[in-house]
Amino acid sequence: MLRAAGVGVGDEVVVPAFGNVEVAEAVAMAGALPVFADIDPVTYCLDTSAVEAAVTPRTAALVVVHRFGRPADIARLHELGKRHGLLVLEQGESEVPYDEVAQRRERASYLDAKLRGVRTPDGGHGHTYQQYVVRVPGNGRPDRDAFARALRVRGVECRVPVKTPVHRLPEFRRCVSLPETERAADETLALPVDASLTKRDMQRIVSACNALGGLLQPAF
C-alpha cells in the first residue's frame, strides 16, 4: 500500500514502536524511513499529539495500528493527516470472531469488577478484547515478570504482549524519547479472556491474581 501510494526513498512514515516489528519492516521495504511516535497510555495506539510532534517536511504517511481490540482515535489521526497532507493507513490485529465478542466482553467485565492490585484496561467504545491487557505497576523491581511467573505457577496462562519495543531492536534502534511506550512494555500483561473460559476458570484467574497483591503498589 505504501509503494502503491508512491511512498519510498527519502520519505518518512510515522509508526508505533509498541507492537510488532512488521510495520517498521514494511516501511523499510518500501524504501522509506520509519519514525517512531509515542502511544496513548489508555488505548496503546498512536497518540495524536506525539504523531504531530514527529511530523517533518519529509513525512509522507503514518500507519495506525489498532491494539488489543481497542480502536485508535482514528478520526483525530485522519484529521491530522488531512491537515499535513499525509497518507493515513490502518492496520488491525487478528479479528475476534463476531459471535465471540459479547462473551469476551462479559468475561472482561467480570475481571474489571473482581481484580485487585492491577490496573484493568479502559474498555472504551468498540473494544473487542482481542487481548485483555492489565498493568502491573513497577517500583524498581521487575514486578510484571515476577507476577507473570507466579501466575503460571498457579496454572493461569498469561503473556507479555510486547516484550521489546521496536525502537530498542538492533535493526531499528533510535535515540528517541517514548516514555509511554517504554512504560507499557515494562508493565503490560495479557490475561486469558477467551470465550471458552468457564466461570470456574475466571474465578481461578481472579483468585490467583488477587493472591499476589503483595508484589504490587496499590493500583491507581
Give structural notes.
With 220 residues, the protein is an alpha/beta fold. The protein is built from seven helices and six strands, in the order E-H-E-H-E-H-E-H-E-H-H-E-H. It has helices at residues 22-29, 48-54, 74-84, 98-114, 143-153, 179-187, 199-210, and strands at residues 12-16, 33-37, 59-65, 87-91, 132-135, 188-191. Strands 2-1-3-4 form a four-stranded parallel sheet, sandwiched between helices. Helix 1 (22-29) links the parallel strand 1 and strand 2 (33-37). It is elongated and about 55 Å long.
Notable traits:
220 residues; alpha/beta; four-stranded parallel sheet; two-stranded antiparallel ribbon; 7 helices; 6 strands; 14% strand; disordered C terminus
Secondary-structure topology with pairs:
Elements: E1 12-16, H1 22-29, E2 33-37, H2 48-54, E3 59-65, H3 74-84, E4 87-91, H4 98-114, E5 132-135, H5 143-153, H6 179-187, E6 188-191, H7 199-210
Parallel strand pairs: 1-2, 1-3, 3-4
Antiparallel strand pairs: 5-6
Q: Could you give a short description of this structure?
A:
With 220 residues, the chain is an alpha/beta fold. It contains 7 helices and 6 strands.
N-to-C span: 41 Å
Parts with pLDDT < 50 across at least 5 consecutive residues: 214-220
Largest sheet, in brief, is: 4 strands, parallel
- Describe the strand arrangement of the main beta sheet, using strand numbers: 2-1-3-4
Number of helices: 7
The run of helices and strands is: EHEHEHEHEHHEH
Radius of gyration: 18 Å
Mean pLDDT: 91
The SS-based structural class is alpha/beta
Assess the beta-strand content as a share of residues. 5-15%
Backbone shape: elongated
Number of strands: 6
Q: What's the helical proportion of residues? A: 25-40%
